[in-house]
Design a protein that fits this description.
heterodimer, A: 362 residues, five-stranded mixed β-sheet, two-stranded parallel ribbon, B: 101 residues, alpha+beta, 24% helix
């Protein structure tokens, strides 16, 4: 994560043991006082936790639990509490947008995929706005969402775009839904990025009630200043700067795969595979293609490759729609179209084992 | 003469949002310049390997490139914050407090 600090209060030594140590007679008066002070602090913290639990009893698991903090342009997280669940909007637009969009994203996962928050156990959704000065970014730090304000030259804020919020929250979901998470480098890193782009786009389409033909399939539209571009990425046509920005180098086919490329670049390939699947299946993208992609998460491993994602989505389509269903065939074709998998060779169909060139058996 | 250039990328924007901070210590108030010099020396920056990568990075792990130019020496390190020695992390945090270019 960017240079930042996160305050954590945890007590590992039980108070009974602290008292026993203090009363053991093996320590000096000063050390004894220190141990007793520590006992008192532990008791205070336990009290705070008890009060906190009482405050939270009116929010059962399965309800949204959002908290928005103001990092006040510093790097210490989470910052000063601005708005808690159920509180009315305040004067800070960024805080209000982060709150509303996190709520819509929660609702999307709850109603479309029956997922209860980031961890599927009702985890609190904490967000900090106004991180650092002129920070051109947003991120999930493993515990919470963080948003900068942009530098005003290239980016003018992030919280007003629901797909940005949904993208970041989906990194949290990937962390929990993929057993062991997805390592953020190489192809697994590009998949991690792609899954967040896919879910970010789906949440936006769901909010706007757009079909696959109505959606713009853009990520980060309106977060860049006009001088830089229109959007950050396009699932419909990755790497097309006319739709996005001048530096867009995303490949949409394995022929353009960048071996040492950034995870934000190579994610264009799985992004396009999703787009092709969704458009072929028609209707609302979250109903079939989205359900297949979401179901595939649990079938992945931390270092999953694009080919493994292709297998996982094909398997997910089978589980959801049956063997050789239209949905399974569509997903299979989409991964072939982006060059991740190959169409079956006639020789293979005739029984030659996979891996042997046609007409040249070993 | 000491010049530090820190580039940071990752998060939602990736390369599009990468930010660079170029700091010429001669242009800073002496107290700040002294603090940064101390951290640079304490980190033994010129002896650090060119890459310090975390074993299994996550989406919140940003990538940093720090280049230092000092008295004719030039060295650059590409790193994740979690894989950097504590002093380099402190130096990164200090530099991140300056406005980007």
């Amino acid at each position: 994560m960017p240079a930042s600090s996160y305050r954590c209060l945890c007590c590992i030594i039980p108070p009974r043991m602290l008292r026993k140590l203090a009363d053991s007679g093996s320590c000096s008066p000063a050390e004894r006082q220190q141990l007793l002070d520590q006992c008192e602090l532990s008791a205070q913290l336990r009290g705070q936790r008890a009060v906190y639990s009482l405050l939270m009893t009116n929010l059962s698991a399965g309800e949204k639990r959002r908290s928005i903090y103001d990092a006040q342009h510093q790097t210490t997280l989470p910052g000063k509490l601005q708005r808690d669940e159920g509180a009315p909007p305040g004067k800070d637009d960024a805080a209000n947008q982060a709150y509303e969009h996190a709520g819509t994203t929660y609702d999307f996962f709850r109603s479309v995929f029956q997922r209860n928050s980031i961890d599927n156990k009702g985890l609190r959704i904490d967000s900090s706005v106004h991180f650092q000065k002129q920070f051109n970014n947003a991120f999930w730090n493993g515990q919470q969402l963080v948003y900068g304000d942009g530098d005003g030259k290239r980016f003018h804020g992030f919280t007003h775009a629901i797909d940005v919020v949904a993208h970041e929250l989906s990194h949290g979901i990937t962390q929990y839904a993929v057993p062991g998470g997805l390592v953020y480098e190489g192809q697994s890193g590009a998949l991690n990025e792609s899954i967040s782009d896919v879910m970010g786009s789906l949440v936006k389409q769901w909010q706007l009630k757009q079909s696959v033909n109505q959606a713009d399939w853009l990520i980060g539209a309106d977060i860049m200043t006009p001088a830089v571009g229109l959007a950050l990425r396009s699932l419909a046509d990755p790497g097309n700067p006319a739709l996005t920005w001048s530096g867009d180098e995303q490949p949409k086919h394995m022929a353009g795969y960048l071996p040492d490329g950034d995870v934000h670049s190579n994610s264009g390939i799985p992004n396009h595979a999703f787009y092709l699947s969704a458009v072929a299946l028609q209707g609302y993208a979250w109903e079939k293609a989205g359900a297949i992609w979401y179901r595939a998460l649990a079938l992945l491993t931390p270092n999953a490759s694009f080919a493994e994602m292709a297998r996982a989505t094909e398997q997910a389509a089978l589980l959801l729609y049956g063997i050789d269903s239209l949905e399974q065939r569509t997903v299979r074709s989409a991964w072939q179209l982006v060059g991740v998998t190959s169409p079956p060779q006639p020789a293979a169909a005739a029984g030659v084992p996979a891996g042997f060139p046609a007409g040249n058996p070993a | 003469m000491t010049r530090l250039t820190l580039r940071c990328s990752g998060g939602f924007t990736g390369p599009a949002g990468a930010q660079t901070r170029s700091i010429d210590l001669a242009q800073l108030p002496s107290e700040q310049a002294q603090r940064l010099t101390q951290l640079l020396d304490a980190s033994q920056f010129f002896s650090l390997p060119p890459q310090l990568h975390k074993a299994a990075p996550q989406s919140g792990d940003f990538l940093y490139d720090l280049q230092a130019e000092q008295d004719g020496r030039l060295h650059a390190v590409h790193y994740h914050l979690d894989a950097a020695p504590a002093v380099l992390r402190q130096l990164t945090e200090q530099l991140s407090g300056y406005p980007p270019d």
